[in-house]
């Protein structure tokens, strides 16, 4: 188990039910699959200090039982009160996995940065969306600057696909298939003012001194509600039937905004919501041999034309 996951699990157990202490034996039970690294991680975590130099954790014995507890000032200073602000373990686990990435060690250089994130659990939830393959974050200065600007709410100037952009406010880093994307806006925040940038196409990034207020009404999950991929927009609905081996593959894919409406021995029938026809067709075409588009008619025609174009390129008789 990585150190950040260990730390966050420990913090979560102490804070979720507002417990003030945890026995060492109980702490061991939190990590059944990490017993080999438990003592090493515990030793290092117990050495963590708060920004003022005070220890984050305290270890003590009572009635021959060994306990650990959190410094009360940590709870007072960094864990907001109120039902809506209770420690969000799931959101912080995202930050924790990022912290474990070697790239992030330069961005979140000490425990003070981690504290600053703690009181912003909702923001972390919006800033990092559907990141299942964090290894995609290579050790690159550009990625480091993008993440630093995102975590610190700093505007950025950048060069992207041979074009220059200035004064953009980063909102979220999200993943589609195996690629990472940045959502950002310029000027006044609005849903219609959001642009999508593929991280691998950034050529340079400059973090400015301008700090922007992260929009509290931003909800990345709602933004993608009507999309079938990374592009959000007007809602369109399609009905498709999936045959043979692709039935299992489509069922497993999370990037299809789909509802199963029929299942029989021959096919699965889905209703799918999408916002970009080109992107949606590209996704479906991976399974073209097993896909029947029932509706709408114009999507079906575009699908057939795409198949004909692919055939014309690959069919030797047609190509000649």
From TrEMBL:
<feature type="domain" description="WYL">
    <location>
        <begin position="142"/>
        <end position="207"/>
    </location>
</feature>
<dbReference type="InterPro" id="IPR026881">
    <property type="entry name" value="WYL_dom"/>
</dbReference>
<dbReference type="Pfam" id="PF25583">
    <property type="entry name" value="WCX"/>
</dbReference>
<dbReference type="InterPro" id="IPR057727">
    <property type="entry name" value="WCX_dom"/>
</dbReference>
<dbReference type="Pfam" id="PF13280">
    <property type="entry name" value="WYL"/>
</dbReference>
<feature type="domain" description="WCX">
    <location>
        <begin position="240"/>
        <end position="311"/>
    </location>
</feature>
<dbReference type="InterPro" id="IPR051534">
    <property type="entry name" value="CBASS_pafABC_assoc_protein"/>
</dbReference>
<protein>
    <submittedName>
        <fullName>Uncharacterized protein</fullName>
    </submittedName>
</protein>
């Amino acid at each position: 188990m990585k150190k950040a996951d260990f730390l966050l699990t420990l913090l979560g157990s102490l804070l979720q039910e507002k417990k003030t202490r945890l026995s060492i034996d109980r702490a061991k039970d939190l990590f059944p699959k990490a017993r080999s690294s438990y003592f090493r991680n515990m030793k290092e975590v117990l050495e963590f200090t708060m920004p003022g130099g005070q220890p984050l954790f305290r270890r003590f014995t009572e009635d021959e039982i060994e306990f650990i507890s959190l410094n009360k000032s940590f709870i007072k200073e960094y864990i907001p009160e109120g039902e809506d602000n209770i420690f969000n373990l799931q959101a912080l686990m995202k930050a924790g996995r990022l912290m474990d990435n070697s790239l992030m060690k330069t961005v979140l250089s000490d425990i003070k940065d981690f504290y600053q994130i703690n009181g912003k659990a909702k923001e972390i939830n919006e800033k990092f969306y559907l990141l299942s393959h964090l290894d995609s974050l290579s050790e690159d200065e550009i990625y480091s600057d993008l993440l630093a600007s995102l975590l610190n709410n700093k505007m950025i100037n950048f060069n992207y696909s041979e074009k220059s952009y200035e004064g953009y406010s980063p909102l979220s880093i999200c993943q589609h298939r195996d690629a990472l994307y940045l959502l950002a806006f310029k000027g006044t925040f609005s849903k219609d003012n959001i642009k999508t940038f593929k991280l691998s196409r950034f050529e340079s990034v400059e973090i400015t001194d301008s700090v922007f207020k992260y929009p509290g009404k931003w909800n990345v999950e709602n933004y993608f509600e009507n999309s079938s991929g990374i592009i959000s927009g007007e809602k369109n609905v399609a009905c498709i039937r999936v045959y043979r081996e692709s039935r299992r593959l489509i069922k497993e894919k999370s990037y299809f905004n789909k509802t199963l409406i029929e299942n029989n021995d021959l096919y699965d029938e889905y209703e799918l919501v999408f916002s970009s026809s080109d992107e949606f067709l590209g996704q479906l075409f991976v399974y073209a041999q097993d896909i029947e588009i029932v509706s709408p008619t114009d999507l079906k025609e575009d699908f057939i034309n795409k198949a004909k174009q692919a055939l014309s390129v690959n069919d030797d008789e047609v190509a000649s």
